[in-house]
Write a structure and sequence with these properties.
Layout lengths: L15 H4 L4 H4 L8 E2 L14 E2 L16 E2 L13 H10 L4 E4 L8 H10 L3 E11 L5 E7 L6 H25 L7 H5 L10 H10 L6 H6 L17 H10 L3 E5 L12 H10 L3 E5 L5 H14 L2 E4 L19 H10 L10
């Protein structure tokens, strides 16, 4: 028997399709993933595997049965991933995901391709984007935006300014690196797809190909880190400003990997308070870069302020260890995201 997902009588219309997920993968031609594991976040912020789900499981008449595998943070070569949007969708299907979001940095260029491919394979698609932000005191914050209007002019203008600044920064960093390593701008551009903006990941890929470092992670932990003499800052939105722009565009802002000390300084309590006051909707708790102690703090923050809790892979393709579906978001959290979106952009269902 098919699993049942119930949302209660007051679910808004745009979430009604999510409620239809009692049989989405069957009528889309996809068998229910027998033996697949639900890895949605638990009450402690962990992403440990839950009960195993099979087609034989009886339906439940109330509450939410967490049987869907939902990954809301992935990247394609429209930004700094290594695979095309279509290939990310295919990889999501192979990984047994039921729902995935494409959240390329500062661009929505991959939405159509990823969505078309995902739906054709029986996988639901959540349109998203990751916005690069910096606080007034220089702390890097990444803001995931879900279901925002892609043509909202104020958000587009801010993103375009950030992209121009990142391009200029990349030129300067390559010039600095070229003083010590045999790297050129052409080496970097060989790793950039036509619509993508050059960023540090592309510089990292060039360094890997040149044999300077073994992989992207090594490049980011050393010469491309914020502590490196080659590092150059670029213009980025303040996270409060980004949240307001996302909300104005009808989207739902969720702070990505918000307490990941290996990435550098993390946002302060004052930063979080300001983001919450501005309209922050949620926090990405289950992420490989958030240590256990950070997850506990984030879960308390979410409970205290009624924030949406998500878990994701931050998949980039080759060069990074992140695996699709290694962390997952609950159906309840995806429902809350859908409930808060006002742009008219919706999850694409098979």
């Amino acid at each position: 028997m098919d699993a049942v997902i119930s949302f209660g009588a007051r679910a808004p219309a745009r979430v009604a399709m999510l409620a239809e997920c009692s049989r989405p993968w069957c009528h889309a031609g996809q068998p229910w993933p027998v033996g697949s594991e639900d890895r949605a976040i638990g009450s402690d912020g962990s992403a440990s595997s839950g009960r195993r789900v099979s087609r034989a499981d009886p339906p439940r008449s109330a509450g939410i049965v967490e049987v869907m595998r939902i990954d809301l943070h992935t990247h394609s070569n429209a930004s700094d991933g290594t695979e095309s949007p279509a290939d990310v969708a295919r990889a999501a299907h192979r990984a047994g995901l039921n729902v995935f979001a494409l959240t390329d940095h500062d661009t929505t260029a991959g939405w159509q391709e990823a969505g078309d491919t995902a739906v054709s394979l029986g996988v639901a698609f959540v349109p998203g984007m990751e916005i690069t932000c910096t606080t007034a005191d220089g702390i890097s914050v990444h803001m995931l935006s879900y279901l925002h209007g892609p043509d909202h002019a104020p958000l587009l203008d801010a993103i375009e300014e950030s992209r121009r600044s990142r391009l200029s920064r990349a030129h300067t960093m390559v010039d600095l690196l070229a003083q010590d390593y045999p790297i050129s701008w052409d080496d970097v551009m060989a790793h950039v797809s036509p619509e993508a903006t050059v960023g540090r990941p592309h510089i990292a890929d060039a360094l890997v190909e040149l044999g300077v470092v073994p992989n992207r992670s090594a490049a980011f932990s050393d010469m491309l880190s914020g502590r490196s003499k080659y590092y150059v800052r670029h213009m980025a939105l303040d996270p409060v400003q980004a949240i307001k722009l996302v909300r104005a565009a009808g989207g739902v802002p969720v702070c990505a990997h918000p307490m990941a000390p290996l990435r550098g300084r993390v946002a302060t309590p004052a930063d979080f308070n300001a983001m919450i006051d501005a309209g922050l909707a949620g926090v990405e708790v289950a992420h490989r870069d958030n240590p256990d102690e950070s997850r506990a703090v984030l879960m308390k923050l979410a409970a205290d302020h009624d924030l949406i809790v998500t878990g994701s892979s931050d998949y980039h393709g080759a060069g990074k260890p992140n695996r699709l579906g290694e962390n997952s978001t609950s159906v309840r959290s995806l429902t809350r995201i859908c409930e808060q979106a006002t742009s008219g952009v919706e999850v694409r269902w098979p």
